[in-house]
Write a structure and sequence with these properties.
It is built from one helix and eleven strands, in the order H-E-E-E-E-E-E-E-E-E-E-E. It is mostly beta strands and 193 residues long.
Length: 193
């Protein structure tokens, strides 16, 4: 005898429990994030783009979220990745070298440098954006705050990277906010120098 018609689908079941976060995830996001908006022009077809990328990951075993004093100057070395780094860092990252003069009232910018290696995806196209920029302009790095008790650092930055300093071949507007935690490098004597 032939089989009958299929019955109606039943109601959806309850959602399952959330999975376990992978080992190392909490440590990788423990030092805060840097969010950047890139506005520019795609290479080749000259289409305008704007993309905001959150870089939340910092490997805990490397000094990618540190501060140190050099006289009256405080240095911050910050690197973050878009995706969780494995054994070696991927090429979707940002690196910031920030120097603040603590000998002024209030503290003031002494030097800021950023390096970018990130993928810009627009529709069905993408390109690897590589860029470098440095400034001493207090108009380009603002809202600086550092709490040495908690290690919390925050600042805003906004500038235009000229066409010859980024791989798009067009001027690139970059704006971003850092909300990170740092650990201080202690000055210790060199034993094997």
């Amino acid at each position: 005898r032939p089989a009958g018609a299929a019955g109606a689908n039943g109601a959806d079941g309850a959602n399952g429990a959330d999975g376990v976060i992978g080992v190392g995830f909490d440590e990788a996001v423990a030092f805060g994030n840097i969010t950047i908006t890139y506005s520019g022009t795609l290479p080749e077809d000259s289409t305008a783009f704007e993309q905001t990328i959150d870089y939340p990951y910092a490997p805990s075993q490397y000094p990618y979220s540190t501060t140190a004093m050099d006289g009256q100057y405080r240095n911050f070395n910050l690197a973050r990745w878009y995706s969780l780094p494995g054994d070696y860092p991927q090429d979707n990252y940002i690196y910031i070298d920030l120097w603040i003069n603590e000998g002024t009232e209030p503290d003031s910018l002494d030097y800021f440098q950023i390096e970018v290696g990130t993928r810009i995806i627009e529709g069905t196209k993408y390109f690897l954006l590589e860029a470098g920029y440095s400034t001493i302009s207090i108009e380009e790095v603002t809202e600086y705050s550092y709490d040495p008790e908690t290690g919390e650092v925050s600042f805003h930055f906004e500038f235009v990277i000229p066409a010859e300093q980024n791989s798009s071949g067009f001027d690139l507007t970059v704006s971003g906010d850092a909300e990170v935690k740092v650990v201080e490098i202690l000055d210790t004597p060199c034993i094997v120098c």
